[in-house]
Amino acid sequence: MENETILYDDGVHKCIMFSFDDEEQAESYLAVNQFLIIQNNSGILIDPGSQSAFDEMYDAVERHLGVDKLKYVFYSHQDPDVAGSIAEWSVSSPAKIIISGLWSRFMSHYGLMDLDRIMALPDQGAKINFGENYIQFIPAHFLHSPGNFTVYDSRSKIVFSGDIGAAVMPTHNIYKEITDFESHLTLLEAFHKRYMAGNNFTKKWVHNVRKYEVDMIAPQHGAIFKGEDVKKFLDWFETLQCGGDIM
């Protein structure tokens, strides 16, 4: 389907990117990506999006896996384009909700009343087993949220990076995979300089990510980084002057 991209599939383990867009601006489009990891008959949904994207996401999960087989729904941070549908997912699925402990007590404001469903991540992150492999929650605090995490999937070697790597795409040229890093960089700079807190934080995140073998970086907005472009992005982000460095 047009709004679905298979990022990884080895017959047992599959990662799917969805692009159910729900944010429009006059001059540009902050295209929204959602992700589903499936291994055998179990799934993890990553940053499923706002209320306006819920129906399409529900249908997609039902088609690929079955909503009743969702084990976890993960939210990288608290923004409404990430967590706006948290109440709907808590009602419609049996999944545990994974989010930073910093934000767990605020989720009732999104309509999530059963706070026992939440697995609150400690600041240092965590690792959970998923089938034969594992999922690592890598701290990404202040990039841009003070309670923020990215996800590393050990089998696919994909980092699901939330707003890190996000691009504000022009409406006339929305693409899903980067083919020209230098050209794509012009779509990253303004967003990252404004939304990321500072170089101390970007450098620390890159240091943590480099502990793992990474084949792909998949952000919540914009296009994915593959192969050599992963290294190019990490090198760029590691030295980025942003936020408090320049404000």
Q: Would you kindly provide a written description of the structure presented here, covering whatever features stand out?
A:
With 247 residues, the protein is an alpha/beta fold. It has helices spanning 54-64, 80-83, 86-92, 101-104, 181-195, 199-209, 228-238; strands at 4-9, 13-18, 28-29, 34-39, 42-46, 70-74, 96-100, 118-121, 126-130, 133-139, 149-153, 158-162, 169-170, 216-219, 225-226. It has a single domain (4-245), classed as Metallo-beta-lactamase, Chain A (4-Layer Sandwich), CATH 3.60.15.10. It is built from 7 helices and 15 strands. The strands form 3 sheets. Strands 1-2-4-5-6-7-8 form a 7-stranded mixed beta sheet. A 6-stranded mixed beta sheet has the order 9-10-11-12-14-15, covered by helices on one side. A two-stranded antiparallel sheet has the order 3-13. Helix 6 runs antiparallel to helix 7. Residues 23-28 have low confidence and may be disordered.
Order of helices and strands: EEEEEHEHHEHEEEEEEHHEEH
Report the portion of residues in β strands. 25-35%
What is the name of the CATH architecture? Answer: 4-Layer Sandwich
Q: Which term fits the overall shape?
A: globular
Strand ordering within the main sheet: 1-2-4-5-6-7-8
Name the assembly state.
single chain
Low-confidence stretches: 23-28
**CATH fold name, please?**
Metallo-beta-lactamase, Chain A
Please identify the top-level CATH class.
Alpha Beta
CATH superfamily: Ribonuclease Z/Hydroxyacylglutathione hydrolase-like
> How many domain units?
1
Tell me the major beta sheet.
7 strands, mixed
The DSSP helix count reads 7
Distance between the termini: 43 Å
Task: Kindly state the number of beta strands.
Answer: 15
Structural class: alpha/beta
